[in-house]
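Researcher: We're teaching a course module on how sequence relates to structure. For the next exercise, students receive a sequence and then see the predicted structure as C-alpha cells, so they can try to spot secondary structure elements on their own. Here is the exercise chain.
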Amino acid sequence: MPLAAIAPATLPKTTDTVIDAICAGTIGFGNISYSLLRRVAGRDYGCWDELGRGRAILTSPEQLDQYLYTYGPMTKDQWDQVLPRVRIPPGRLRIVDYGCGQGLASGMLIDFFGTELAKRISNVVLVDPSGVALARAEAVLRCYTESAKIWSLNKRLDDLIVEDLILNGEAYSIHLFSNVLDIDSFQHIELFNKILKTKGRHLVLAVSHNRNFHGGSSRLYEIAQALNDYAQRGRLSLLESTIREFRCPKGQKAISLQLRLEVLHGSV
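Model: And here is the predicted structure for the students to work with:
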C-alpha cells in the first residue's frame, strides 16, 4: 500500500522517530503495532525526570520516545487486563481518545480486536495539549485505520466544548481514558456532562493507577456515581457500570472503569 494511503499527504520532515519511520515505509498499515512502535522508537534518553511521572505535557520527540520506553510496558500491562473483558458492539464506531499522548490506547484497542474492528472505525477524535504528541498520534492512527476521518484537538480537557464532541451519524462512540481520569488537573464530571450531550450509544473504557492521592481512584468512582444518578433520574440509560481494582503482572496496582450507556435525548 502506498504511503499516501496511510499517512497525511503533507507530513512535514521532522526529527520524530515514528513519523520518520512511517514516511520511510518501515511502519504502515498491515504491520503497525504497539510492539513495533516501541521497538522503533522506545529509547532511553535519560530524560525520565522530565515526564512528571507520566503526567507532564511533553514538548519534544525525545520525551515521547522516553515515555514509550519507560511507561509503554506499564500501559500495555494495564490494557491487557482490561480489553479481554470488553465487548465491542457491531456497526460503525467512533473513537475519542482523551489525553491521547502518542495514541497508545487507541492503538492497543485495535491491536487487540484486529483489522475487523479497524475497518469499522469511521471517525477518530484525538485530544491532547501536546502538539508533538498529537502529531505522532495522528500519524499512528492513520496507519491503524484505512479510511477513518481523524480529528486532532490540541486542547486541554477543560477547554473542550460540546461541539468538539458532538457526533453526526449513527456510529457507536468509544471513549478512551488511559491514565487520565485519575489526574486532578481537570473537571472530570463537567467533561462527562459535555460528552453526554451527544445522543446515542457510548462505551467508556478507562484505566489508571490505583492510588488515593493527587486525585486518584476516587475520581473514577465519582464518575460512576454521577452517571448512576443521571440514570435514576431518567436522563440516560445505564446498561453497564463496572469498576475493577487489580494488579498488573509486575505487581502495579491499577483500576479500570467500564461504562455502557445510551443517551436518548442528547440533553444530559
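Model: If you want an answer key for the exercise: The mean pLDDT is 91. The two ends are 44 Å apart (CA to CA).
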